Amino acid sequence: MAAKVLPFYQRKLKHYDQGYRSTQTRYVVQEYSASSSRTASSRSSASRVASTSQASRAQVGTKRHRTSVEDEQLEYTVPPFRTRSAAEQEEYQRRVVHFGNELASLEAEVHEAREATRQQVDKLAVQRMVEERMALERRIHEESMSRAPDFLVRLRSHTVWEKTPVRLFCTVEGYPSPIVKWFKDDVIIDQTSEPGKYRIESKYGVHSLLIYRCSIHDTAQYTAVATNVHGQASTNAAVIVKRYRGEEEPYHSVLLPVQLPMLPPIAYTKIDIDFMEAFDVTFGSEGETLTLICKMIISPNLANLQPDAQWFRDDVRIRESKWAEIKYGAGVARLTLTHLNKDDEGLYSLRMVTKGGVTEHRAYIFVRDAAATVVGAPGAPMDIKIHDANKDYVIVSWKPPNTTSESPVIGYFVDRCEVGTENWIQCNDSPVKICKYPVHGLFEGRSYSFRVRAVNKSGISRPSRVSEAVAALDPADLERLQVIHLERGKQIVIYQDDLEGDVKIPGPPTNVHVSETSKTFVVLSWDPPSPRGREPLTYFVEKCMVGSGNWQRVNTQIPVRSPRYAVFDLAEGKSYQFRVLSANKHGMSEPSEATQPIQAQEVYGQALSSGIPSAPGRILATRNTKTSVVVQWDPPKQAEGLIGYYIDSSLVGSNKWESCNHKPVKYTRFVVHGLTTGQKYIFRVKAVNDVGFSENSQESTAILVHAALSGGIPHTSPSSPYGITLLDCDGKSMTLGWKHPRFSGGASVNAYYIDQREASQLRWKETNIEAITERIYKVENLQEGSIYEFLIRAANVTGLGMSSETSEHFKCEAWSMPEPGPTYDLTFSEIRNTSLVIQWKAPVYSGSSPVSGYYVDICEAGKEEWTTVNNKATSHRYLKVTNLEEAKPYVFRVRAVNAAGSGKASEVSEPIFVQERPGTKEISSGVDEEGNIYLTFECQEMTDISEFVWCKSYEEVTDFTRVSIETSGDKSKIIFKCPDKEDLGTYSVAVTDTEGVSASYVLEEKELEKLMALSHEIRNPLIPLKTELSYEIFERGQVRFWLQAEKLSSAANYRFIINDLEVSNSESHKIKCDHSTGIIEMVMDKFTAHSEGTYTVQIQDGKAKNQSSLVLIGDVFKAALEEAEFQRREYLRKQGPHFLEYIFWHVEEDCTVMLVCKVANVKKESMFHWYKDNVQIIPEEPVNLQNGTCKLPICQFSKKDQGIYKATIADDRGQDISIFDVSGAVFEDIINGISRVAGSTASELKIQCTPEGIRLQCSMKYYTEEMRTLWYHKESKISSSEKMRVGGTTEMVWLQICEPTDREKGKYTIEILDGKQSYKRTIDLSGQAYADAYAEFQRLKQAAFAEKNRGKVIGGLPDVVTIMENKTLSLTCTVCGDPAPEVVWYKNDKEIELNDHFVVSLEQGKYASLTIKGVSTEDSGKYGINVRNKYGGETVDVTVSVYKYGEEMPPPKLGQMPKPTPAPAPAPAPAAKTAAKQPEPPRMGRAGRR
């Protein structure tokens, strides 16, 4: 029988593909087909047997019975209108039976064939469907089913007897299938370590751990950790193994009438959790990483009973994800928000869950917008949600961002991205104005993520956080999913569609209605037709304006596959009707029923005129803490679809609004944090829904940010006292002590009330009627030997607070021990990173002798190892504990000591977390303007009832004969009236009604002496001087004596004294004072030899005095006098043309040495000249005196340029001379300057081969032999020799390696020194570089030898010869070569045949001649001589021109001389004598040295 089912994957993922099939579907279908075939065969055989039997029974008149429906339909009945005789009727019946038997047999055969054919067709169809959906299944598994592990059934704790087994179960799901590992007290369980001890099983997602024969050591916390690629999850449970009492056996024989022992009831241990360090209100920005940390003390800390740390945001449990990482261990809980987003803003709470209850800590986390990519763009939307997912359609909703200084949001863009890709596609072309948008065009079976961006007139915001992935699937397919149960427990999952094969054209959709509406679109929803057939359905939507009767197709381009569709582009204010048609490949249905008239309007248009909520009502701001304010408001009157509220704040007078929350809050009360103490703020609120923002509410009344009376605590009465301690007992009374309430309720605690009862009674009775003002009280009229309990309540002006916890049982029994009783009232102050101060009160019961000292014990919280801090008992009732570990909690106790020994310890203190508070300040010392010595302290955490309590040696200062205390606002100081050694000691201050704000200061003798000296200076003031009396000399030789005071009033008096004689203001001694700057000066016009002595200035300004003296005697005076005379001479010199700067030199970039001097006070007639060794030099470029700079360039500077250079300038006003000696050290400096420029620009060493050897050369701007250059071979210095020759040109320096051998291989370095640094260039002459260079050297050497010894024509032949006809021409030249060359003469490039006309001769092997006898015009032409030996040769050509007698001789044509050696040029004609000229001085400059 078919039944609807809901598989496990659809229970967790509502959007999962309903086409899921089991991985064994193909096998099940085949088995089902085979079984159906066997059943059909047996059924057909039975039909044939039944028909035969019925035929025989029909013959004897029995009633026939058919087993099949078809047989029953084939029974024949005699029509009533026919009448036959008995014989005819019998014959007729016989024939009918015979015909019926044959027809039944034929019909059975046809039915069998049809059944077989239908089964075969169905089998093929099912197989094809299974194959298609199996492929879809795999893809859906990867895209939509992928998820982190999640425990459906978690581990449960067990308590078992020793030597009995226990099994732990858990069920986990996830895709891919998680791997589960088991841990015992955080140590992984290894089955091989203890064979037979453990058994781990895993089947169908159920995982188990079996522990055989448990022992006491198996008591632990067991954890199962499930892991796959998407994450990790864990569950834990405690196993407690109990041991039987005595020798009792765990099991008894079933034959003995003995019952098993009953397990005792489980009593849960109360676990106390104290948060020592917890996260506070935190501010972050989008994109940042934020970690919330809570450190706690767990008591008792049992390894197998650890609390469960649960994190919540706005009371919603936070799970591990890519946005949140949760860790807990070693008493520290951490929540890391890996990438902050405004979605993360909210009230965070950590709940530590134990069997005994929950301990919780809360704080608000604010997340600001990240910096906009475009200035003025809005913040990103948040809280992206997906609704109504279907095959090709979803609805996306979001929350809008707040805008304060930005322009309003005008719309939103929705983007989608297919899971597994990074391709984001914008869904809407124009911004959508409301916070909801239907998205069409999705592909069935694919998963998508969405994000939203806000738009205003400035630009587009950053994208929101990506939504959770959702699959495009039709949830209605669940209703059509059925399971057919087969034999042997097998089943097949099919669609209802597969059973509706006979349906061709579908019916019309039903229940067409509007599910979403807005001003721009409406969303239609409907139910698919039923039945709808096996073929896929598509839908077409039509609309009609009411009253027109004209139906128009809406989705003409894209058919709709989901029973949802959003209709856009509707006319505003018009009403429409809609209907839907369904279609498949066989045809289209009839239209559905039309909807009621629908008008496109805002979501909440019926309630609100514009769809947005109205403005919130009255707003009230009240004080909370020193940095926060509580804002409350009335909800808006019209609040349809309200999402929440945004609160804005503004400093009074600034008119600049800032957002207080960045995510809408749903309540009408909000605590605004992050405000500045002492500033006034105003607030406003606006409501928001899907359509937009309301108007701003009215502004609140300005409020001053300051701590409220109650310090921000909800109640104003004090909290309960604690730490009730028995201090003394005499048998009839008890003395009790207790600690101050942790919270005073905003007002001072002024009374305590005690209740008491005997431990055996239930009723409490009042101990005191009148208020107790101290925290110690003696309870009278008690019965000796009875046991009592006590409760204490504190009270302030508001009323009575909560009662304390019931004290311990105190027995009324007189104390008689010789040791002292316990100390009490332990308080802690000055808590810093490594130290604190503990104080206590003396014991009430001192024992048999007086208390002589105290010991302080310390223990790290959670441990039991106590250590005594002070090895020697301290006589004080305070102790500074140092060398503590930062960020660790400690507990303390104090023991009093007398002659009998150490007494009972005090109650253990509450855990103290050793860490300095942020912003902690210390006491500072100083002296005020009146000379009073003081200590001051500032506290910014003051409340209205806070007070400064000053102490000396940790005893409150009550005697004000030596000190006074002044307090103003958040500052207080203690002033010493007559400070002396009695005031030395430790001073401390504590601020009441704060979280332990305190500090101390040790006033030592040296510090007091410094303060007293400063006080004396203030009470007996000196005029402070910026500058003592000093002098300076002016350019005319005048001397100015001056000093400068820090500050002078207009009534200040002063006088100058020289050698004990006061000097008054006069022409020779000009004295003046500038009161604004505090400068007093005297200018002496003439400073002579009689001016030697002591100079003093005395100043008085009211009560303040000062003086300053200057002694000018001996060498100091002589130096001042010499300087004055020099300045006087310089002044006279500068009255005419003079040198502003004397000659100096510098080297330019091209290594030219430039001599430069600067002149001043010149005019047009001034004359300037350069001289070298008293010989005038005329520069190439004339000197331009108007620019004040004169230059003399010296190119290619060398030794010859040494000498004395002089520059003169003169006119009618006078003359000035500058002399510069270029020699010695100056010459060396110039050479070094040239080396610096040349060395810094020198090229790398290069290899140049020559016939003599290998040359290493370095090019530079200029080189001279005076430059210091060093050559190195393998770090060894090279000296110039025949083998290694060093040389150079003006642009290059080289090292010639003559006839190189293998010894010359290696690294060569040239070092150019400039006196301060060196410049090195290196080359490696070895390996292939040496081989190539050596080969080139050999080639050049051979070529040079051949060039030297080849045949050459040395000279003697002209280029052109002109001769008259019939003359004899002799061409003679000198040739050389070794060996002697061969000589061949040519005419017109053809060898001359020797005869009587052409005669050739070679005399002495070097004089070759060609004689042409009786020349004629035919002998004109080009003649050449070729000289050659085995090394080569050359050819020299001569042009011969023959002319006839009587013709004009052609002019000679001058050409080039033979190539080997140019013919000597003809001597020039002697020049005409010119008039004698006067000798000119040498010219200097760049061109003059070329």
Question: How much helix, percentage-wise, in residues?
Answer: 10-25%
Low-confidence stretches: 1-30, 35-78, 246-268, 710-715, 1454-1490
* Basic shape: extended
Instruction: Report on the biggest sheet.
Output: 5 strands, mixed
Which class of secondary structure composition applies to the elements?
mainly beta
Q: Can you list the strand order of the major beta sheet?
A: 3-10-9-5-6
Q: What is the count of β-strands? A: 100
> What is Rg?
58 Å
Give the number of helices: 8
| Approximate strand percentage | 35-45%
How confident is the prediction overall: mean pLDDT?
A: 82
End-to-end separation: 120 Å
Could you characterize the architecture of this molecule?
- The chain has 1490 residues and is mainly β.
- Helices cover 12% and strands 41% of the residues.
- The strands form 25 sheets. A five-stranded mixed β-sheet has the order 3-10-9-5-6, with no helix packed on it. It has a five-stranded mixed β-sheet with strand order 12-19-18-14-15, with no helix packed on it. Strands 31, 32, 34, 35 and 36 form a five-stranded antiparallel β-sheet that branches.
- Strand 7 (198-203) and strand 8 (206-211) form a beta hairpin.
- Helix 2 (25-59) packs antiparallel against helix 4 (86-143).
- The longest helix has 58 residues, at 86-143.
Helices, strands, pairings?
Layout lengths: L2 E2 L3 H5 L12 H35 L9 H5 L12 H58 L3 E7 L4 E4 L4 E10 L3 E6 L2 E2 L9 E6 L2 E6 L8 E9 L2 E12 L29 E6 L4 E4 L4 E10 L8 E6 L2 E2 L6 E6 L2 E6 L8 E9 L2 E12 L13 E6 L6 E6 L11 E8 L5 E3 L9 E4 L7 E9 L14 E2 L9 E5 L5 E5 L14 E8 L3 E7 L10 E8 L6 E2 L10 E5 L6 E10 L2 E2 L9 E2 L19 E7 L2 E6 L8 E10 L5 E3 L9 E4 L7 E10 L13 E2 L17 E8 L4 E6 L11 E8 L6 E2 L9 E4 L7 E9 L4 E4 L6 E2 L12 E6 L6 E6 L11 E8 L6 E2 L9 E4 L6 E11 L2 E5 L6 E3 L9 E4 L5 E6 L9 E5 L2 E2 L6 E6 L2 E6 L8 E7 L6 E6 L1 H15 L5 E9 L5 E7 L7 E6 L2 E3 L5 E6 L4 E6 L8 E9 L2 E9 ...
Parallel strand pairs: 3-10, 12-19, 79-100, 92-99
Antiparallel strand pairs: 1-27, 2-4, 4-8, 5-6, 5-9, 7-8, 9-10, 11-13, 13-17, 14-15, 14-18, 16-17, 18-19, 20-21, 21-24, 22-23, 22-25, 25-26, 27-28, 29-30, 30-33, 31-32, 31-34, 34-35, 34-36, 37-38, 38-41, 39-40, 39-42, 42-43, 44-45, 45-48, 46-47, 46-49, 49-50, 49-51, 52-53, 53-56, 54-55, 54-57, ...
